[in-house]
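Hello again,

I reread your note about wanting to compare the complex against the isolated chains. To keep things tidy I'm splitting this into two emails, and this first one only covers the full assembly. Below are the input lines as submitted, including protein chains and any nucleic acid or small-molecule components. They are followed by the predicted structure of everything together. The single-chain runs will come separately.
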Amino acid sequence: MIQANMQLDAKGLACPMPIVKTKKAITDLEEGQVLEVQATDKGSKADLAAWASSVGNQYLGTVEDGDVLYHYIRKGSNEPEVEQSFEHTVSLDGIESRDGLILDVREAAEYAFGHIDGAKSIPLGELDSRLLELDKEQEVYVICRTGKRSDLAAQLLANNGFTKVYNVLPGMNAWNGNIKKDI
Amino acid sequence: MAVKKWTAAQVARKVMDHEELFILDVRNTDAFEDWKIDGHQFEYLNIPYFELLDGVEEILPKLPIDKEVLVVCAKEGSSVMVAEMLSEAGREVAYLEGGMKSWSSYLEPVKVTDLENGGELYQFVRLGKGCLSYMVISEGEAAIIDAVRFTDVFTNFAKEKGVEIKYIFDTHLHADHISGGRMIADATGGTYYLPPKDAQEVVFDYTALTDGLNVKIGASQLDVNALYSPGHTIGSTSFIIDNQFLVTGDILFIDSIGRPDLAGLAEDWVGDLRETLYSRYRDIKEDLVVLPAHFMMIDELNEDGTVAKRLGDLFKDNHGLNIEDEAEFRRTVTENLPPQPNAYEQIRQVNMGKITPDNDEQTEMEIGPNRCAIR
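Full-complex prediction:
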């Protein structure tokens, strides 16, 4: 199962109800959180994707399991409004050939629908509590979608004694190489 | 104001009668651009329903008040919602019952001509999909060519006319729509014919449709002659009816020609296509009226709603019949082909009897425009 912050059951509902319900449900989420919409209406896939982009949400993808479609939508497509301040950065180009760990701090659902092979997933919101999973002596290349969340994550790591931390720019939205999916 | 409900048949009348209509299509933009209800005098506005969830005020100025407005969506639900919102805003609008799904299924029977001794020839125009089927009637008997899967339409029509369906032909193994031929044969006891070269993988019994086959319909012995004309598929066969009409299947259309690639063998079949169009058909008399299995654009409909044109005129006007250079012809029909029809491989499997999807799945497979031709 792909991790989401909220599930919405729209199974058995015909168009337009899956979108009407999604629109309502997503108001209860925080920016950046992920909604899973369960639907059986086949048309819901194209419509949800188009709706999401028209209102500024990020459609992550759909998993089909039997008759049920599981759609994943991340609320808002804006990244945190921060000045990028972490000074150690590296370019996305050639990132997969570097020694060290690629740390993907996007939401688990974003990671599931496409990440660089070998990257480790720890969403930004969980990083603080999962530092023990990381090696302080290893190079850590932090990546997200656009470089903002990874900036915050890199600062957090540095403040916790990690010394070889780099923010990867611009981020997964510019990645043209192979991707691996966990769906 | 009350919201009115229109049937696909009512919309078809608007198309056939060249009437005006304003269509508010609330499907998403990709779906609309791919495929819509075509009318000679129709105007369109495409706004996806999910952009109207908060209200319709913004689009009110874009909707005419001196014209009928029909709201259309994929299956009906969203068009009802939008139509009701418009109605509450004081507009008189209708929605299409069953949406594009029912539009794709609707068949309009049009009489092509009366034949001798009370015979009749009908063309069944599937406006939403561009499919054309035929029924020849003579003195209590009927033959059907290229029936689509809505078999009730044909069997009910035959009942109304008081005729028995004796022969059911498919000009070829279809890849763009599901054939109703075998089901009609099962329901009526008529004989189902398929070209054997297209039927090598079919898993049911059929009768071989071979070059020169002649069947006679009714006491007046109305002639239906088969003419082997490969190219779209290796088995494609045409019919000459009553020495007046040439039923071409997917080989030759009014404004385009067949594509040779839907069974994956464009390179192999392009020579056959060339020979059929530039040699076999040239030996037939030019006064025959061509009746194809598809049309691509609403402009191909005649004033009376039929899709039919003299063979001699096609030799003059149809670009695909006027490519002198053989190498150029080969390039035209094998390179830069239009996208293949939705689910065409699955549809071929259905027509071979290898898979039997339920009605909803069949509808899903047939969704979208027809793409059998090369202009």
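For quick reference: Residues 107 and 153 of chain B are 8 Å apart (CA to CA).

B.
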